[in-house]
Write a structure and sequence with these properties.
Blueprint (H helix, E strand, L loop, with lengths): L2 H19 L29 H10 L2 H4 L19 H18 L4 H10 L8 H14 L7 H16 L6 H8 L9 E2 L7 H11 L14 H24 L10 H7 L3 H16 L5 E2 L2 H19 L8 H20 L6 H5 L6 H6 L2 H10 L3 H12 L13
Antiparallel strand pairs: 1-2
Helix pairs in contact: 2-5, 4-5, 4-10, 4-12, 5-8, 5-10, 6-14, 7-8, 8-10, 10-12, 10-13, 11-13, 14-17
Length: 398
């Protein structure tokens, strides 16, 4: 067989496999939609990589994805190498989501793409950093900041120096609507969503307070990722908190332990098995009442004892001040066209002209800070605000 015939047969085999295996309400790859299909190097219908599989490749090779490696998950300012960072979390979400998807005969490629891209918009110092950026946006009257919409912005608008990655609607929508902080017993897709509605939701996430908590994914795969996000962090955060001596395992209420367990593996297994059992052959996903009630109680336990723990928030005011100082400094550099600023050197000099012209100056600064890793953020602050030693003597001018 000639190469062209071989590849055509592979494409056909991919489609036939999905037709035989996937549930009728699963999102088939043939239904994937790109806004600009003509910009693809290989036409979708002859690409041996199905559209969502291809989107995963685009995401993992993005600059934003490489920055996961040094982004806070929950705990910051600890020197323990055995706690979760953002790069691990998204892998946990992907693995859990794919297990659920395989058992429910859903599109694993779509689940993986959404999972690996869903937290790209998280900022230095995790949710605490996100809160500060949102406060700055409010104060400066430029709207809101939410990490899920920022994840979409990186992929759709800022990657490739402002050209974007031309991902599918279903992947971008799953990322936008993943909000793992919002817990529900049942998740039903918004099957009627199209590009127009997605873009309206995307716009409103940056403009309307807590708007991102009101939207739901357009695919059942997106719903799977949304709950997999919770399943991935709820028990793992407990293990990390125990490792760091923030809590003890015996602190977990007995009523929760009896129903879903007190170790990460037991919690994941209980939640996943219950979800699969109650969602099998349905066009939505759901927990049983008892399991959901215990999960909700566990989430509240984590909030009170881990996420709001005063002992690990002592340094937070300093971090908040760092965000505000960097924002003011970079904004001053932008307004005064200081081309020596790190903001120009590391960000603006390589960005697309359309982005420069059409984006509010203050929002440009927010985008820059949001993309930083924790170490880069700290180093920028030191470079700008911490005095440098002259050494043993004054060096001669060049």
């Amino acid at each position: 067989m000639e190469s062209k015939e071989i590849f055509s047969e592979i494409v056909l085999n991919n489609a036939n496999r999905e037709g035989k295996i996937l549930a009728k309400y699963a999102c088939k790859s043939k239904n994937g939609i790109r806004k600009f299909p003509e910009k693809e190097k290989i036409i979708e219908r002859i690409n041996i990589r199905p559209i969502f599989f291809h989107d995963t490749d685009k995401i993992i090779h993005s600059r934003a994805y490489s920055r996961y490696i040094d982004k806070t998950q929950v705990f910051y300012l600890f020197e323990n190498d055995h706690i979760t960072h953002r790069v691990l979390h998204v892998q946990f979400v992907s693995k859990i989501g794919r297990v659920i998807g395989r058992c429910l005969r859903l599109n694993e490629d779509l689940i993986e793409a959404i999972s690996l891209g869903h937290d790209l918009g998280h900022v230095p110092y995790g949710h605490d950093g996100e809160k500060v950026l949102n406060e700055i946006c409010n104060k400066e009257k430029i709207g809101c900041f939410v990490h899920n919409a920022q994840s979409v912005k990186f992929l759709m608008e800022l990657e490739q120096h402002g050209k974007g990655l031309n991902l599918s609607l279903q992947v971008l929508d799953g990322i936008l609507a993943h909000n793992g902080e919002m817990l529900s017993r049942e998740y039903s897709p918004d099957y009627a969503k199209d590009w127009k509605k997605f873009e309206e939701e995307y716009y409103h996430c940056f403009r309307e307070k807590k708007y991102s908590t009101k939207i739901f994914p357009m695919t059942i795969e997106g719903c799977v990722v949304r709950i997999s996000d919770v399943i991935a962090y709820i028990g793992r955060d407990i293990e990390d908190a125990i490792t760091l001596k923030v809590i003890k395992r015996k602190d977990i209420p007995e009523g929760i332990i009896r129903i879903i367990g007190n170790t990460n593996d037991k919690i994941i297994n209980t939640l996943v098995m219950d979800l699969i059992k109650n969602s099998y052959n349905k066009d939505y996903i759901t927990f049983s009442n008892d399991i959901f009630s215990a999960l909700r109680d566990l989430k509240e336990f984590n909030r009170a004892n881990i996420y709001s723990n005063d002992q690990i928030k002592k340094e937070t005011p300093k971090i908040e001040n760092m965000f505000r100082q960097l924002f003011e400094k970079f904004l001053d550099d932008l307004q005064n066209k200081n081309n020596e600023s790190p903001f120009y050197r590391h960000y603006l000099k390589d960005i697309d002209d359309n982005y420069r012209r059409n984006t509010d100056k203050k929002r440009i600064i927010i985008d820059f800070i949001a993309g930083m890793t924790d170490d880069f953020f700290n180093n920028q602050f030191k470079e700008i605000f911490v005095p440098k030693s002259y050494g043993y003597f004054l060096k001669p001018k060049k």
